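== Folding the chain ==

***
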Amino acid sequence: MKSDLFASENLAQAAVAPGMSLQNAKSVRYNVNGEMLARQGAMVAFRGNLQFERKGQGIGGMLKRAVTGEGLALMSVRGQGEAWFAHQGGNCFVIDFEPGDALTVNGRNVLCFDPTLSYEIKMVKGAGMTGGGLFNSVFTGIGKLAVVCDGHPIIIPVTAQSPVFVDTDAVVGWSARLETGLHRSQSVGSMIRGGSGEAVQLKLSGEGFVIVRPSEVTETVTGH
C-alpha cells in the first residue's frame, strides 16, 4: 500500500529516550518508565505494559481533584510503554522547567506532565468568581509540562510600565510572579469579540510574560 500518509515523518519510531517529546505539532509522545500524569481524555494511543488510574476528588495532600476549578480531572499512567496525547487538533508545546521556574497555566491547556513537577491550584487573585481563568494551576519544580493551544499562541511581554489586559477566555498562562486582577471597562465592551456592555479583562502587571491563544472558541471542560 502506498500513500503520502505513510511518509517517514508520520511514522512513530521506537523511543530512544524516556520521558516526553513532541510526536508532531499536534501531539505529544511520552515514553513511560515509571509514572506520569495527564489530562483525562487526552490519550489517543498507547503500547506496552501500562496501567491507568483516574484521579478522584482528592483534597489536601492527595492529588488535587482537578488542575483547575473547572473540573478538569487527571489520570496517572504507570508502567513501561509509550503513550500519545493530543486534544482537538490543538498545537502542542513542551515546556522544560528549571529550578526557580514557575508558570501559571489554565487547566484547559494542560495536556500531560512529569511527576517531578509540583502543581498547586490557586484562585486567580482579584478574579472573584467571574471570568474564564478563575482557578489556574501553578507549576514548579524540575521536569516537563506539555500544553495545548488552539492556533498559534501569542507571547506578550509584561513590564512594570506596560501591564497587559487579556480576555479571560483566551489566556493560556502567565509568569507566576505577575500580579493579577480584574479590569472592568464599559467602553471596551462593544469592541472585544463582538460583545456589548461591560467587558472584563484579566489585568497582568509586573515583569514577565503572558501566553494568549488566538481562538475565540470556548469549550466545556469535562473529565472523561
